[in-house]
Amino acid sequence: MIERDRGGRFFAHLLLIVGVLIVAFPIYYTFIASTQTIQTILRPPLPLTPGGEFAENYGQALFGGVGRIGGVDVGTLLFNTSVMALGIALGKIAISLLSAFAIVFFRFPFRMFFFWMIFVTLMLPVEVRILPTYKVMVDLGLIDTYAGLILPLVASATATLLFRQFFMTIPSELVEAARIDGAGPMKFFRDILIPLSRTNIAALFVILFIYGWTQYLWPLLVTNDNRMNTIVIALKKMVSFADADTPWNLVMVTAILAIVPPVLVVVLMQRWFVRGLVESEK
Amino acid sequence: MAAIELSEVRKVYAGGVEAVKGVSLTIPDGAFCVLVGPSGCGKSTLLRMVAGLEGISGGTVRIGGRVVNDLEPASRDIAMVFQNYALYPHMTVRQNLEYGLKNRKTPKEEIARRVEEAARILEIGQYLDRRPGQLSGGQRQRVAMGRAIVREPAAFLFDEPLSNLDAKLRVTMRAEIRRLQRRLKTTSLYVTHDQLEAMTLADQLVVLNAGRIEQAGSPMAIYEKPASLFVATFIGSPAMNLVPLDGPGASPLATLAGPGRGRQVLGIRPEHMRLLDGGAGVRADEIVLDLVVSGVEVVGAESYVTGRLAHGGPELAVRVPGYSHLEPGAAVKAAAPLGAFHRFDAESGRRLELA
Q: Final residue of a domain: which of B228, B252, B275?
């Protein structure tokens, strides 16, 4: 970074701080609301400092929410969402690693055809193929199961392409050295390719975890039982609760709790994430 | 340890391009054979066929008497050193050395022993726990050789291993490779485009051109008796001077023509010629040529004076000791011993011997 005059730096920082405030304020406000009683929330203006109901609201949401959030406590919702997000992220990574491996390192008939098939699926988002996919899930009896939540979202052309690009940068001499060292294809994959892809895998994991975490449409369709809901679905159901008043304080608690895991993943994996995006390796 | 025998080995690529056109060659057990040639002559392809990284379109490759045509590289009992080292970047030096042995289920104690020994021979002991990224080019090259040594293979294959090093390091590593090979007495096949590297390393030198062997033999035999115009100009630096006998300015040399009636080319190496002071000191077995200086290249210990034969003839380089003060345009006389001339058939490029 070039040292600029003080005024310029001040202005740059001012801009950044304003940007951060604009992004962070709604989240802060949500947190404030989650520590108030429902009466305070429903009687504007909402105070800008935390209220005294923190323990009460969070405790109720986490452990005593029966009958309130569709009969399911937030713990179960978080667990469901974690299973789905982890399943989607890890599944996508596993499948795309393997398919990129096949496309880059093997010569088989119709190799390019399969590559383009994968490529073309980029143009078919979940929403387009949702009816047939739903039918298949029903036929397989996967409604209201974790498998049903995860499987349809697992195939990923984007990740396959990403790994393909990375694999193509691996020097052919390295592949040949491994052949001479007696490493068969799967051994090469495990001992050399995967360790070399570490940073890419980490970066992709962060992106895919958040993608999985924020899924809305598919979980809404494939879960009928409230016990299988993800936290995003549950939030929606809480807000449009037909028979009673919306428990806004608990909605806010749930919203805050829904943000925590993705934030944790990003914070904990930040270094890997940035390296994976920046590093072009060798 | 084993001899490597190639017989009528051919490589035809899918597009019909013939990269290697029937090469037969025997590398005796323990010998250091260098394949040299310009780029695209098929030398690397040939090496990769011996390694098993490239399919063999015709002929057979034997290592230690065993036909290896259809064997995987790993089962050919060879080790290879690559131009870009091809070290596994995520493994430490020790893991790099161990990897091939582990894949072969070598006992732990044996692996440790061999790694220790290789580290001692190559003096890389203190780097064993570093990663290749933390090493310099020369150190990486040593590790790459270490990875070959620990395998204790029947043959080493080198694919231009020094071309990524700077000039000074290249000379050091060259000497080191030679010493190492003498010590281990492992049959080695080495590919390079650098004729100096080829001359200094080889027991057996093979000059390849356009997928065929031009000449094979000891480096000095090839240097002294190049079998063709191609070899004559490729081996030796600066290259051998050539004078087409039917060309301009060649009349003083006409008496040197060999037997036969075809068009001929005379060759003489720069170090066999000398410049005369005035006209004195010509020996009976020398021929004197009149040159007009066109350039002087000072190397340090010696200089190369290039001069054009009178009447628009070809340029000849003459080696002179020390520093030459000649200016372009100066007329000089150069003497060359009659016995130092080589004769080639202009049509086929083959060497002609005096009857």
A: B228
Q: Predicted ipTM?
A: 0.84
Task: Say if the Cβ atoms of B100 and A181 lie within 8 Å.
Answer: yes
Which has the closest alpha carbon to B325: B288, B284, B292, B296?
A: B296
How far, in Å, CA of A72 to CA of A64, rounded?
9
Same domain flag for B292 and B345? yes
* pTM recorded for the entire structure: 0.81
d(CA B331, CA B294): 10
The alpha-carbon gap from A178 to the nearest alpha carbon of chain B, in Å, equals 8
Distances in Å between the alpha carbon of B43 and those of A173, B158, B206, B207?
A: 17, 11, 10, 9
Residue-level pLDDT, tens digit, chain B, 355 residues: 689 999 999 999 988 889 999 999 999 999 999 999 999 899 999 999 999 999 999 999 999 999 999 999 999 999 999 999 899 999 999 999 999 999 999 999 999 999 999 999 888 989 999 999 899 888 999 999 999 999 999 999 999 999 888 888 899 999 999 999 999 999 999 999 999 999 999 999 999 999 999 999 999 999 999 999 999 999 988 899 999 888 887 777 888 887 777 889 999 999 999 988 766 678 888 888 888 999 999 988 899 999 998 777 888 999 998 888 888 988 888 999 988 999 999 888 899 887 6
Q: Chain B: give the shortest CA distance to residue A273, in Å.
A: 18
How many independent structural domains does chain B possess?
2
CATH number at residue B190: 3.40.50.300
